[in-house]
C-alpha cells in the first residue's frame, strides 16, 4: 500500500516541477538539482536524479521549456521563456489599475493574479504602489459578467434586454425611462475613455446606438433574433469613435475649420493620418481641415479646449450653433445674481 502511494505521488513530479520553475526561475534565475530534490521532499516525494531528468524531458516534450546549462560541478536549470516578461506584467498591472470600469475590489483581485504570473524574484518590482483608492473606479462589479452575456448574445445572434441607469447629484444610480427595459441588437463592444461601451442596432430608431456597459443592469438574452445585421456589416467602429466625442451622439456633419499650424498634430491624432488637411493660402501660419463629426455639446467643448484661434468655416448652421453654445456659457458669467 505504501509502495503504491509512493508510485502515485511520483506521477505528480512533472506538475510540481512546472510549478517550481514558474515560481523560482526566469531568464536570469536558475535552480540546481539539490534544490529540486529538496523541494520534492517537502511534498513527500523522494526521487533520484534519473527520475528528475525524465520529468524534465517530459515537460519539454509537452512544450514547457526547461533549459539546463552546464557549470562547474554540475548543471543549473531554468524556464527562460515566460508567457509575460516583467515589463509586460507591469504594463498589465498599470492598465488594470487605471481601468475605471473595474471596481477597486476587482482591480486588486486581478492585480494579485497578474503578480502570480511572475517569478518570486520580480514580485517586488511588480509592487507598483498603485493608489487605487484615489482613482475613479466603477461602482458596478458586474461589468465582466455583463460582457460575457453580451458576447454570448452576439455569438448566438440574439437581441438583449436590459435596464439603463444614470447618476443623480446624490451619487446614486436611478433607472432611465422609469425602469422600462431597452431591447437592442448587440453588434460589438468598444473601449473608449477607460469605459466599455456596447454598440447596438436599435430597430425602433433604425440606427446604431451605444450604451456604457457599467450602467447596464439586469441584462438578459432575448429569444428574438438580432435585427439590422446588414446595416451593421457596413458599420465602421473606428470611424464612429472618431466622429463622437466622449461617446455622445449627434447628427453627422462635415465641418470645415481653420486652425494654427502648431495644432495640426492634435487633429491628426484625433482623426487619423488620412485626415483632409491643406495649407491656408491666405495665411501661411494656419491650415484648413475638414472633419466628419457628430455635432454635439461635447464636440463644441473639445473645440473650446483648442483655444480662440480655431474657427469653424462651414456649415453656417454649425457656426450658429457653436456661437449660441458660447453665448449660453458666457451668459452664466454676465448675470448679477449670486
Give a summary of the structure in a few sentences.
The protein is of the alpha+beta class. The chain has helices at 2-10, 13-24, 33-42, 49-61, 86-98, 104-115, 143-155, 229-233, 237-243, 264-271, 297-305, 316-334, and strands at residues 31-32, 67-71, 74-78, 158-167, 173-175, 182-192, 195-202, 207-212, 216-225, 251-260, 276-279, 286-295, 311-314.
Describe the structure in your own words.
It is a single chain. With about 350 residues, the chain is of the alpha+beta class. Strands 4, 5, 6, 7, 8 and 9 form a six-stranded antiparallel sheet that branches. A four-stranded antiparallel sheet has the order 11-12-10-13, with helices on one face. Strands 1-3-2 form a three-stranded antiparallel sheet. It has twelve helices and 13 strands. Helix 2 (about 15-25) crosses helix 4 and helix 5 (about 85-100) runs antiparallel to helix 6 (about 105-115). It has helices spanning about 1-10, 15-25, 35-40, 50-60, 85-100, 105-115, 145-155, 230-235, 235-245, 265-270, 295-305, 315-335; strands at about 30, 65-70, 75-80, 160-165, 175, 180-190, 195-200, 205-210, 215-225, 250-260, 275-280, 285-295, 310-315. Helix content is about 40%, strand content about 25%.
For the sheet with most strands, the description reads: 6 strands, antiparallel
**Topology as H/E string?**
HHEHHEEHHHEEEEEEHHEHEEHEH
- Percent of residues in β-strands: 25-35%
End-to-end Cα distance:
89 Å
Mean pLDDT: 82
Q: Which secondary-structure class do the elements indicate?
A: alpha+beta
Shape: elongated
Percentage of residues in helical conformation: 25-40%
* Low-pLDDT residue spans: 131-135
Radius of gyration: 29 Å
Amino acid at each position: 500500500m505504501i509502495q503504491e502511494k509512493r508510485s502515485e505521488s511520483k506521477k505528480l513530479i512533472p506538475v510540481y516541477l512546472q510549478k517550481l520553475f514558474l515560481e523560482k526561475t526566469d531568464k536570469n534565475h536558475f535552480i540546481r538539482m539539490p534544490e529540486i530534490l529538496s523541494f520534492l521532499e517537502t511534498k513527500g516525494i523522494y526521487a533520484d536524479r534519473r527520475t528528475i531528468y525524465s520529468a524534465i524531458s517530459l515537460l519539454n516534450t509537452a512544450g514547457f521549456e526547461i533549459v539546463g546549462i552546464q557549470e562547474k560541478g554540475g548543471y543549473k536549470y531554468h524556464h527562460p521563456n515566460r508567457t509575460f516578461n516583467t515589463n509586460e506584467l507591469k504594463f498589465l498591472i498599470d492598465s488594470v489599475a487605471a481601468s475605471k470600469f473595474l471596481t477597486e475590489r476587482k482591480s486588486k483581485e486581478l492585480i494579485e493574479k497578474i503578480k502570480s504570473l511572475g517569478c518570486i524574484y520580480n514580485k517586488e518590482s511588480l509592487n507598483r504602489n498603485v493608489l487605487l483608492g484615489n482613482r475613479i473606479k466603477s461602482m458596478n462589479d458586474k461589468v465582466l459578467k455583463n460582457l460575457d452575456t453580451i458576447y454570448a448574445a452576439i455569438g448566438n445572434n440574439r437581441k438583449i434586454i436590459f435596464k439603463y441607469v444614470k447618476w443623480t447629484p446624490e451619487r446614486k444610480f436611478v433607472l432611465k425611462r422609469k425602469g422600462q427595459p431597452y431591447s437592442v441588437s448587440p453588434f460589438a463592444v468598444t473601449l473608449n475613455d477607460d469605459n466599455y461601451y456596447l454598440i447596438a442596432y436599435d430597430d425602433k430608431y433604425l440606427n446604431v446606438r451605444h450604451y456604457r456597459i457599467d450602467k447596464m443592469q439586469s441584462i438578459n438574452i432575448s429569444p428574438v433574433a438580432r435585427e439590422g445585421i446588414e446595416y451593421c456589416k457596413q458599420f465602421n467602429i473606428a470611424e464612429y469613435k472618431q466622429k463622437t466625442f466622449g461617446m455622445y451622439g449627434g447628427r453627422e456633419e462635415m465641418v470645415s475649420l481653420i486652425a494654427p499650424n502648431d495644432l495640426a498634430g492634435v487633429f491628426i491624432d484625433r482623426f487619423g493620418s488620412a485626415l483632409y488637411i491643406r495649407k491656408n493660402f491666405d495665411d501661411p501660419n494656419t491650415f484648413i481641415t475638414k472633419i466628419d463629426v457628430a455635432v454635439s455639446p461635447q464636440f463644441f467643448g473639445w473645440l473650446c479646449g483648442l483655444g480662440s484661434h480655431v474657427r469653424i468655416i462651414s456649415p453656417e448652421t454649425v457656426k450658429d450653433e457653436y456661437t449660441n453654445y458660447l453665448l449660453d456659457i458666457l451668459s452664466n458669467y454676465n448675470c448679477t445674481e449670486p
